[in-house]
TrEMBL record:
It holds the Pfam family G6PD_N. GO terms for cellular component: cytosol. Its EC number is 1.1.1.49. Pathway: Carbohydrate degradation; pentose phosphate pathway; D-ribulose 5-phosphate from D-glucose 6-phosphate (oxidative stage): step 1/3. This is Glucose-6-phosphate 1-dehydrogenase. One of its GO terms (molecular function) is glucose-6-phosphate dehydrogenase activity. Catalyzes the rate-limiting step of the oxidative pentose-phosphate pathway, which represents a route for the dissimilation of carbohydrates besides glycolysis. Keywords: Carbohydrate metabolism, Glucose metabolism, NADP, Oxidoreductase. The keyword Acyltransferase does not apply.
Length: 443
């Protein structure tokens, strides 16, 4: 089963729980509980659901990862991201009382037996496993879940798989086949948490329920589209993980491609998830694999005289392999030919350690005025997205081109602007860099 993001996924699960009338216990297991995704996204979301009374009775949470932690450690890590309001302190304590933590490896049946025992102590229960993990451990984790931790016959099991789905087309296909062999389709949720963002969810409304934009969203109206993702910070000690994936795998092939399909797809017959997915796949099928000559790759270096993190380049991170050529910046241009003959020029732009703000945006450049069923899940969508980027990734890893350097906190490599200008994108806005309080303080 494929869904549009975390919000839709939780809505579906809530409906299932409500249907059962709250008779059973429900155990939500966060695999990878010590990671960034868990502390910044998953635990805060679970807290908000608990705070707002959107969870059924007898719901419990279990964190699982290799780190030797306690529930109190999880609480300290997560609190800065939970947006706790005044007067909610007691409710926070109640939330963490229904939490538990177990340390264990991802390839040990014995450790998963400990996890299963902890789940069974909650009584007869439905089980939901959230894989907030790198794809390198998906196979071993799901094998152990299937062998050891499945619900009894009268209760359900759900497995939520987070992006990235593999490292390339081959590994994505292997993972899809692996999961399909272990679980029924209705037991699987493949999600990209980025799709839960309000901006992304509103794209369809903007396009198809807006009398201003709908008539001009065509080959006669649009010259090009730029989809950008910018982060003002570097790897922050996570370079070892990031270096295995790079900015293209980490953001461009999944997050930005999801936005691209919503921008470029034809109007679906209905808002049914199957109809939307079909139109998204049509867009992906119309895109040729990215050629390295149609890209600009960069890697940030420390800012001379900078303070704090801005003084450190990517290669200064002790967790990054020496001499790594993994890009932290990438601009790519894609050509999308639609059914009516319209050709979009779509620029995907991902930047780490640039500017002093964090943002994602879609910039539509209009032309100057002259005198629309997924029974097999989201696998084929994954296939098409990986098909587009795998040749580029293989070329980068084979030839290891040296990325263009750009200073931490700067706007972006000038080569990227020249690259886009040569392909008819004209930036007519103004740009003014304002030093933030954090930058002044060296944070």
């Amino acid at each position: 089963m494929a869904v549009q993001g975390k919000v839709d996924m939780l809505s579906i699960l809530r409906d299932e729980l409500a249907y059962e009338g709250g008779a059973a216990s429900h155990v939500f297991v966060v695999l990878g509980a010590s990671g960034d995704l868990a502390k910044k996204k998953i635990y805060p979301t679970l807290w908000w659901l608990f705070r707002d009374g959107l969870l059924p009775p007898k719901t419990y949470f279990i964190g699982y990862s290799r780190s030797k932690l306690t529930v109190d450690d999880i609480k300290k890590k997560t609190l800065p991201f939970m947006k706790v309001k005044n007067g909610e302190e007691q409710k926070v304590e109640q939330f963490f009382k229904i939490n538990e933590y177990i340390a264990g490896s991802y390839d040990s049946p014995g450790d998963f037996s400990k996890l299963n025992k902890a789940i069974e102590q909650k009584g007869s229960c439905n089980r939901l496993f959230y894989l907030a993990l790198p794809p390198t451990v998906y196979e071993s984790v799901t094998l152990n879940l299937k062998a050891t931790c499945m619900s009894k016959s009268d209760k359900w099991t759900r497995v939520i798989v987070e992006k990235p789905f593999g490292k390339d087309l081959e590994s994505s296909n292997r993972l899809s086949n692996h999961l399909s062999a272990l679980f029924k389709e209705e037991e699987l949720y493949r999600i990209d948490h980025y799709l839960g963002k309000e901006m992304v969810q509103n794209l369809m409304v903007l396009r198809f329920a807006n009398r201003i934009f709908s008539p001009v969203w065509n080959r006669d109206g649009i010259a090009s589209v730029v989809i950008s993702f910018k982060e003002p910070f570097g790897t922050q000690g996570r370079g070892g993980y990031f270096d295995d994936f790079g900015i293209i795998r980490d953001v461009m092939q999944n997050h930005l491609m999801q936005i691209l399909t919503l921008v470029a797809m034809e109007k679906p017959p209905t808002t049914n998830a199957e109809d939307i997915r079909n139109e998204k796949v049509k867009v992906l099928k119309s895109i040729q694999p990215v050629d390295i000559k149609d890209t600009v790759l960069g890697q940030y270096v420390g800012k001379p005289g900078g303070k704090g993190d801005e003084a450190q380049g990517y290669l200064d991170d002790p967790t990054v392999p020496k001499g790594s050529v993994t890009p932290t910046f990438a601009t790519a241009v894609l050509s999308v030919k639609m059914r009516d003959g319209m050709v979009y020029l779509l620029y995907l732009d991902v930047e780490k350690a640039t500017l002093n703000e964090r943002k994602a945006e879609v910039r539509i450049q209009f032309k100057d005025v002259a005198g629309d069923i997924f029974p097999d899940g989201r696998s084929d969508e994954l296939y098409e997205a990986w098909r587009i980027f795998t040749p580029l990734l293989n070329k980068i890893e084979t030839e290891k081109p040296k990325p263009i350097t750009y200073v931490y906190g700067s706007r972006r490599p000038k080569e990227s602007d020249e690259f886009m200008a040569d392909r008819d994108f004209k930036y007519t806005g103004t740009y003014r860099w304002t030093e933030s309080k954090e930058t002044k303080a060296g944070l």
